[in-house]
Amino acid sequence: MALKITVIGTGYLGATHAAAMAELGFEVLGLDVVPEKIEMLQRGEVPMYEPGLEELLRRHVAGIEGSSGRLRFTTSYEEAGAFGDVHFVCVNTPQKHGEYACDMSYVDSAFDSLAPHLTRPTLVVGKSTVPVGSAARLAERLAAGAPAGAAAELAWNPEFLREGFAVQDTLHPDRIVVGVASERAEELLREVYATPIAGGSPFIVMDYPTSELVKTSANSFLATKISFINAMAEVCEAADGDVVKLAEAIGHDERIGKKFLRAGIGFGGGCLPKDLRAFMARAGELGADQALTFLREIDSINMRRRGHMVELTRNAVGGGFLGKRVAVLGATFKPDSDDVRDSPALNVAGQIHLQGGQVTVYDPKGMDNARRIFPTLGYADSALEAVRGADAVLHLTEWREFRELDPAALGDVVAERRILDGRNALDPELWRKAGWTYRALGRPQA
User: What is the three-class DSSP state of 151?
Assistant: First the structure.
């Protein structure tokens, strides 16, 4: 008999995973404790912007004309427990308020709510990013709370989704990592992921602690690479060097590679910063804090970039923001997303606003979320309207739309043709030919 799958938590990770499992041919039941979210998903709508996700969802949600009907949603743990053979837990693990540590309350609540309804042999699979050591604790908690006892097993299967590429990353993952404690758990997960495995995705089996460390280690390495090139940008500015040319040269070294060597205002979002900090906090709890002290400097370099962008803008407009109009192109932390959590672009916009600047923001997808976080900023419906009357234009999220802007058309409506490229993604020559003063981080002479 074919496996039936439940997905606990239908946020960014859970909604994507549920739709992908239905695409792979499974009967899927998604669960969330927020009725409004369930109602939206039942209509085939998603509560966030992710390219291709809504189309994938509508191909499978029951009740939508032409769909496979393999995907349903509920708010009932009792229904989920009776339905599923494999339960994926995809709830959020935010940073604790006032601390670096991870808030495990949503994960604990999900396990406690599901366990009493597990009356037969089943597999619960954690996908949330958690501190190392959590899986062993949760396995004991699950067995103690489930009527099926030890037959309610746990596995850990970390997610590696990139916002903007989540559907592709779920259906065609570059690796599938599973932490298991039994052959049965491994066999079930091989069955779940049979299609991507057959397509060439590596299936890597390991113990609980190692599987928990994979995501945080990968994110820490990525953050280190990004902050390294941003540190080099600081040196380039002091030495009149060009960080873009520097990155190009060192990127040809196959030991280093070219990816994530674009200097800018740094990383943000709901994962990388909080995962980095939670990793440091957990290392301290384990007595291994010295092993990760370098991550504090990585975090510091990253946050410093935002302040540096504000300083460059202040200098560009004459030393102060009072009476100055600043246009900010970009609100999300990365393109192809509507996610503004810990967005460097919004942080820079907010700092300039607090220092007296009149800031107008435009983003292709993140406007509604940005307004909720920074309601006092100005917002425009297009890049052209955002830059109207601006003394300086800041390019802070590398949307394709911004790379394709016509510098001449924008130049006709600004007060001063002055652009600061916080992502090193625009063509300096193109903008200069249109009469703009162009400045980018780490490129004082470019």
Answer: helix
